Amino acid sequence: MFLIVKGVLPKPAKVILTNVSAETMHAVTVQVSGRSYQIGDLMPGVVTSVEVEPEGDSHVELRFGANRRLRIDTYIAAGSGDTVIATVTPEAVVTVDTRSPATIY
């Protein structure tokens, strides 16, 4: 279902992840409110991205390996088209930057 407000269609958000560790993160899933997106293995130094469509305003969480979780310290609005750029290791989220479509060139 799409909602049109003032002639603007909702846009999926994008999550861009970089594994800055020396370890592979296995079976990575990006979780947002009401939905999850499988990434697969995230090898050291690799950058990957996924478009996400949360069912409502949402935080972003990574799930991987044997029940491991990392919460990315950001908040995305449903349909906003925001881009979340995060560098991660299996132990922590190292950096996070959230940009709205107006600030992406």
Please describe what this structure looks like.
By secondary structure, the protein is mostly beta strands. It has one domain. Helix content is 0%, strand content 55%. The protein has no helices and eight strands. The protein has a four-stranded mixed beta sheet, with no helix packed on it. Strand 5 and strand 6 form a beta hairpin. The protein is globular and about 40 Å long. The termini are far apart.
Beta-strand residue percentage: over 45%
Radius of gyration, Cα only, in angstroms?
14 Å
| Shape assignment | globular
N- and C-termini, Cα separation: 29 Å
Oligomer: single chain
SSE-based structural type: mainly beta
Domain module count: 1
Sheet with most strands? 4 strands, mixed
Low-confidence stretches: none
Helix content: under 10%
Order of helices and strands: EEEEEEEE
Total helices: the number is: 0
Quick one: how many beta strands? Answer: 8
Could you report the average pLDDT, rounded to the nearest whole number?
90
Strand order of the largest sheet: 4-1-7-8
Keywords for this structure?
single chain; 105 residues; mainly beta; four-stranded mixed sheet
